[in-house]
Amino acid sequence: MTVKKWVGKLHLWLGLTSGLLVFVVAITGCILVFEQEIKSILRPFQYVEPVANGAVLPPSRLQAIAERQVPGKPAKGVNYGELGHSVNVPFYGASPDYYVQVYLNPYTGEVLSVVDEEADFFHFILHGHYYLWLPEEIGQSVVAYGTLVFASLLITGMVLWWPKKWTKSSRDKSFKIKWKAQWRRVNYDLHNVPGFYALFFSLILAITGMIFGIQWLANSIYWTTTLGKTMPEYRQPLSDSTATRRFSNPGDRLWQRFYQTKPATASLYISCPERASESIAVSINHRPGTYYKTDYYNFDQQTLKPLAGEGPYFGEYKKAGLGDKLRRMNYDIHVGAILSLPGKILAFFASLICATLPVTGFIIWWGRRKKKALKPQRRVAKVQTV
Predict the structure, then answer these.
(1) Transmembrane residues, as ranges (predicted)?
(2) 161 and 31 assigned to the same domain
(3) In terms of domains, do 95 and 222 share one?
(4) Are residues 189 and 75 part of one domain?
(5) What pLDDT, on the 0 to 100 scale, is given for residue 172?
(6) Which of 146, 241, 300, 343 is the most exposed place for a label (fewest CB within 10 A)?
(7) How far is CA 122 from CA 38, 290, 320, in A?
(8) Which of 295, 320, 345 lies at the terminal end of a domain, its last residue?
(9) 101 CB neighbour count, 10 Å cutoff
């Protein structure tokens, strides 16, 4: 058996075993690419009319108003959007799972909407994309290693696509779809040609997706891009719970410090600690709509002393090293947001093509299988002796 035939067998069986998973993950990925754009239309309460020189309410006031809308649940933080956006206060927890967001007018404290995110369509799709609607501890590994199989399919597919000789005829077959041919040939071209054009972007989607679910791969890429550093486990710095509290509303103090100096185009998040040992997390996102260009700070809630942390999700973005910046960018690369709308369009079509590959591949295999079954058997004439 030649190498190409062996690769073909491997491509076939990997495709048959992972096809349904790839289809579901790719289709849900298509839907999620434009989640923010769709929600900006469906959720007008995300926006408010800016008030010139208007006084914005501090986080303690907004937290108290929001907690009255979700009785018995503690707010996790207060997120001030960029100018012209409402404030949202998230509530989430486990056993049982809940995720609620309260949207408020930052100037008046008026409750604009209370959204149960667990019942949201996109939240349902997200669970399918991440876990195939299975329990998280099972589904995440299934999706992650299924994506690893898909990455292998892309590479073996490239080997099978590569022509033996580069002639005009082979170039036409490799780069063009013969729309006027019989439907089986059109299906074959739809498997090969778009698959080739989307190969680079599909590999990026696969690798950035696997980083979320395969720890050894995430650690290996971090080690390589940081020239030998080990990814530290994320641990939020702790406050000194034995110290005397100096401020009645420490979150408000930090808000006054950061809100006045942040750009109008940036968003500001301040956490709401539930225990005395928790630090107050403050983050400034300089490019809302993405997540990578964010500055992360932690403060002792008793003294407001700055606390240091390790890893990519601490400190200012501009001071982070290459490996830490790439780790922060991973999600935004995965959804294409790193390149704004053009990047999202690329991610959408790459995901759509990925979703078609298992379908067209299965049709190719099924057609060849039927063809073999219908192929007449060669009969050997028997010599009759007299």
Answers:
(1) 12-34, 142-163, 195-218, 345-366
(2) yes
(3) no
(4) no
(5) 84
(6) 241
(7) 10, 17, 32
(8) 320
(9) 20
Return the pLDDT at 287. Answer: 96
Upstream peptide bond of 96 is cis (omega within 30 degrees of 0): yes
Domain count, the chain: 2
The letter for the amino acid at 17 is T
Q: Is residue 124 part of a domain?
A: no
Domain extent at residue 247:
49-106+233-320
Q: How far apart, in whole angstroms, are the C-alpha atoms of residue 327 and residue 220?
A: 12
Q: What torsion do the CA atoms of 27, 29, 33, 34 make, to the nearest 10 degrees?
A: 40
pLDDT at 367: 85
To which residue do tokens 């006027």 refer?
180
DSSP state of 91: E
Q: Could you read off the pLDDT of 298-336 as tens digits, one per residue?
A: 999 999 999 999 999 999 999 999 999 999 999 999 999
Instruction: Name the stretches of the chain with pLDDT < 70.
Output: 370-386
Indicate whether 157 and 169 sit together in one domain. Answer: yes
According to the model, what pLDDT value does residue 171 have?
A: 87
Tens digits of residue pLDDT in 21-42: 999 999 999 999 999 999 999 9
Bridge partners (DSSP) of residue 271 are: 77
Dihedrals φ, ψ of 325, to 5°?
Answer: -65, -40
111 within some domain? no
CA angle at 286 for the pair 281 and 290, rounded to the nearest 5°: 90
Residue 100: count of CB within 10 angstroms of its CB: 20
39 with 73, same domain: the answer is no
Distance from C-alpha of 333 to C-alpha of 40, rounded to nearest angstrom: 21
203 and 272 share one domain? no
pLDDT on residue 226: 95
What is the per-residue pLDDT for 114? Answer: 98
**Is 114 within a domain?**
no
Residue pLDDT, tens place only, 334-356? 999 999 999 999 999 999 999 99
Alpha helices in the chain (DSSP H): 3-33, 35-42, 59-69, 121-131, 136-161, 168-175, 183-197, 199-213, 215-225, 250-259, 322-334, 340-374
Distance, in Å, from the CA atom of 197 to the CA atom of 206, rounded to the nearest integer, reads: 15
Cβ-based neighbours of 52, under 8 Å, separated by 6 or more: none
Q: Do 40 and 145 sit in the same domain of this protein?
A: yes
294 CB-side CA count, 13 A: 23
Interacting residues of 159 by C-beta distance below 8 A, sequence separation 6+: 4, 7
